Amino acid sequence: MDVRDFVEIIGADYYTGVPDSQLKALCNYLMNRYGLDAKHHVIGANEGNCTALAAGYHLATGKIPVVYMQNSGEGNVINPVASLLNDQVYAIPVIFVVGWRGEPGVHDEPQHIYQGEVTVQLLEDMGIRTFVLGRETSRGELASVMKSYREVLAEGKSVAFVVRKGALTYGEKITYNNQYTMIREEIIRHIVQAAGEDPIVSTTGKASRELFEIREANGQGHQYDFLTVGSMGHSSSIALGIAAQKPDTRIWCVDGDGAVLMHMGAMAVVGVQKPKNLIHVVINNGAHETVGGMATAAAKIDLSEVAKACGYPYAVRVENLEELDEELSAAKARGELSMIEVSCSIGAREDLGRPTTTARENKERFMEYLGVR
Fold this sequence. Notes:
Layout: H1 3-10, E1 15-17, H2 24-33, E2 41-43, H3 47-61, E3 66-70, H4 74-85, E4 95-99, H5 110-125, E5 129-133, H6 139-154, E6 159-163, H7 184-195, E7 200-202, H8 206-218, E8 225-227, H9 235-245, E9 251-256, H10 257-262, H11 265-273, E10 278-284, E11 287-288, E12 294-295, H12 303-309, E13 314-318, H13 321-334, E14 338-343, H14 359-369
Parallel strand pairs: 1-2, 1-3, 3-4, 4-6, 5-6, 7-8, 7-9, 9-10, 10-14, 13-14
Antiparallel strand pairs: 11-12
Helix pairs in contact: 1-6, 3-4, 7-8, 7-13
């Protein structure tokens, strides 16, 4: 179905969400139509944030908002759905549009498999009536579903469309870029060189995929790295948990701007704990690149200054490889919690592969390297 038909039938004029590759047609359409306009389209930090934004929109207008997300974000909306939107509380109606990664019977990456199995059930358990939108869904069928949904929404309840892969299409293309020149894969290669045999915790998305391929190209094993293939926004907390228990081992965290924004409170926890053996590198391209390239709020934020405000003893921003190498070496010698924000271009190799080891194998090799087994 053409996304313009989908949007027309839904009939909303406010969208907020976290971009998803399954919903790329919708995301690109919204960027073309609205850009980033607080009155019509906001890309939030996380899906709970988006749900609250939608509630504010409804309170101010009385109209029905749309919250879009990948199904991995359902966990972030459980609290606001249950304690804010629910018809036994404020009865604030929202239309959720959920990209269905890991749909049963459709091959996907390991972090999506269980989430895909419980996607519809989670929504229904929250009292959200759900319709699965597929390639075969006709305009007439969608209009009929939306008609019945309006009766549900009028009662202050929420509804959802779970979108299968390829269900929405959009003919116009958008190119996302910024003014920076450093390439993320090259940045990670320099981090690997500086880290040596130190353990690395890497964030979800292309960063972990690139780290895996760099190890392959170097002829190295993968025991040094914990690849956080899911659980976006939590890699720095994982790294902190490791660093606290292994105070004599230097731990590196390779993070992304979208992930940092998703759970920025983690930086405050790291800053308060001040582990002397943790180096936090945030690669900031101002984009949700792994799922298409839509902007993050970090494009206009100096995350190194945020880190300082959170209590990091040292934080700096770099914009070229020379500065990066200098700061990586200094951080390694400093023996103090350090954060390096790296300004990065948008883009990756088209032939970028995925890890060939399983998530469990990754965990076991990493724990063995830490001396746990």
